[in-house]
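Reopening this ticket.

The earlier resolution said the output was attached, but the attachment link was broken on my side. Pasting everything inline this time so it's all in one place.
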Amino acid sequence: MAVSDYTAKQIQVLEGLEPVRKRPGMYIGSTDSRGLHECLREIIDNSVDESLAGVAQNVWVTLTKDDWAVVRDDGRGIPVDKHSSGVSALEITMTKLHAGGKFGGGAYKVSGGLHGVGASVVNALSSNFLVVVLRDNKAYFQEYEKGKPKNPVKEASGEQVAKWFPKEWGIKAGVNLTGTLTRFKLDTSVFKDLKFDKNKVKALLKDRAYLVAGLTFHFTDERDGEVAHYYFEGGIASLVAHSTRDKNPISDVIYYKKEDEAISSEVAIQYTDTYTESVKSFVNGINTLDGGTHVTGFRIALTRSISDYAKKSGYIKEDKNGLTGDDMKEGLNAVVYVKMPSESLQFESQTKAKLNNPEVQGLVASMTKEGLDTYFEENPGDAKKIIEKITLAAKARLAARAAKDAVLRKGALEGSSLPGKLADCQSSDPAVSEIYIVEGDSAGGSAKQGRDRRTQAILPLGGKILNTERAHLDKIVKFEELKDLIVALGAGIGESINYEKLRYHKIIIMCDADVDGAHIATLLLTFFFRHMQDIIKNGFLYLAQPPLFKVIIGKNVYYAYSDEERDQILKEHANGKFNIQRYKGLGEMNPGQLWETTMDPINRTLKQITIEDAEEADKTFTMLMGEEVPPRKRFIQMNAKFANLDI
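Inline output:
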């Protein structure tokens, strides 16, 4: 058949759960670590929905030594009676897309599920999947392989119940307990060798415990024996207070709530003296990572309320430049939480990362404006501190703009006036162009000589850069090394940043393997995380991995990138005379060696920088690079034994 032929024979119909296995990213977002944990979240949230319906008080989550995940609740138990289609309702729920109790049938008023594809998608992506239902004084079960039932739904024996339920759960034949247990092992052909990250799972459970009053989570990691329990009565106000515990708050936690006939929304806010923001948003217990209409309504009202109070109280003049939404972000910590009927929910995708309901924006905006106006009137001291913080951010923004405009007038931030120390590449295609940010002129010289001039640019740094964790944008723009970096990248900075103008899609930090090199790399990572985070999110930032050792055995030269590699080389050549050189700096390598070991795309090793947990990363940067000494001292004391003193 010719390539141009297009007939009915080429139309493929995927039955049942086949579409999920064919295109898993359409249903869980990706098949990386985020997608892996999305599967677990889907199952956990089914149990959380039972609590939102008022019928479950506990959720147990266990990670087993052999890579199974087990989730159990004490809710009603999934129905097992025959559906109108002729098979058990349990089988329908677990094997059919868009089937479930969350479509207005009365089973759930509020739930995190929308499309009814959660459990069935996880089933499709699991090599093995088991559901056990406790209801009507009996235990029923069904097992599946890659989404296909191995047996019809049937009653479990006492031996099976004893096998599936730990003794501490107190489940015995004849005892009228209710609930659902889901036990699954994700398919390695889809997720490769990825494992569940204990810290991610604990963070997920902790968030849910804050959001759902009266629900207790019991977590067990059989891989290392850790057991944890989460139960909070303070709600999202406690969640905000927890997120600011290592920062310096300049206000109390501001909390307000509003309900209409269908929608309940609540917001908690606290400002700190840091320069970064953390806004988390949820809908029916689901973390909407990309925000949505509820976050838009919150931000609009936050800006309006603070601006109105600042003008009314004389903190800013009516005829002066007003405060912007970006000014409000510095030091802001907030949680926006909305609960609404599940059949009304509109998400952008099955991963539920962004809420699209337009009616929610107005409700959250009016609630936020009313709540903040009242708080400011009743707490003028806190209001003054917040506005002083924000007006300082506004002054820094204007100063940064002025500094940037001054540099622009000199022609240094635009096209033709690239930094003199930049050795640019010949290619103008960002997709194939890469820039090495190199520590020191010596290493920079070697890198310039050893590079592939067609695609590799070199920008040497003259020592340690500014700690941008503690700096406003005006200081950053004026700092020579950072200004050169910003100009070289071409995307701009601050409110005028445009990533479409980014000149390189591989930005590689290459530093010495010593304490100073590690410090410089950390300072650069801080800059990118705080001021050009989308470079990280788009996968453009890397760390080069130069060799630590040069091993000479006879006339042969070997490079080792770790102590283990060095030892393996020596073991393989045990009878030879050897000489080992420990590289401390990149400048110790000549251009040929630097190219061969660290810059040649065929041989080099690069570590891609990613953000798996933005909140945890934010806390870490604040702790390590911020002004508060006690948290940093605590961290050093707890982790000193893991330090590599060799560098």
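Reporter confirms the inline version is readable. The first helix runs from residue 18 to 22. Residues 109 and 341 are 5 Å apart (CA to CA).
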